[in-house]
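S1.2 Input.
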Amino acid sequence: MTRVTRYKTSYIIVIICLIVLCLGLLYFSGWNVWVTVGLIFALLIPGRVQGLLFRDLFRGRRALDQHHPAEALEHWERFLKTIQSQPWRKPALWLSWSVYTPSVEAMVLNNIGTAHLILDNREQAIATWHAALELDPRYPLPYTNLAVVSASEGDSSTAENLLASAKQLGYSGNAFDQVVQKVQHLLANVESHGPSI
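S1.3 Output.
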C-alpha cells in the first residue's frame, strides 16, 4: 500500500468517524441547537487556523486558478520563505487534506514549478520539481508534471516512465484524485481571504 493510499484511506476513516461522532452528539443532545452550533464552530476551527498560517499558499492557489501565474508565484515564493524561517507552521498542513506529501515545502515547490511552466520558464519549472523530489522522493505530483514536460518535448519514453512512477506512488488521476483537486481549489478560494499571521 502506498503512502498516498494510506493517507486517502485515513482521511476517509476520519471523515466517517467525524460524521458518526457529530450525529451521535446531536442525537444524544436531542438535536439541541447549541450543540449544533458548537459542532459547526469546532469543525471550522482547523480550517481557520490553517488559513491564518498558510494564507499565501492559498492565495497563490487562487491566483493560479484565476489564471494569474505571476501573482501565484509571488505568493508561493513568499510562503516558502515564511515556512523556512518559521518551521513551527509546518504541522498546520495536517489540518486539512494533505494526500500526496507530508512536506509543505515540497508541495509549494511543486506549485512554484507549475507557475513557472505556465509562464514558459520551462527550465526553472523542471529544476523546481526536482527540488521538490529531493525533499520528498515519494511525492507523485512532480513526477506527473515532469511527465507532461517530457511528453510536450516528444520524449514519450521518459513521460511514460515518469507517469508509471507517479502511479506507483499512488497518483493515477482517478475520480478520488480529481475530488481532492476540487476540494483544494474550494479550500483555496475560502482560505485565501482574510488576514494572515
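S1.4 Remarks. The chain has nine helices and no strands.
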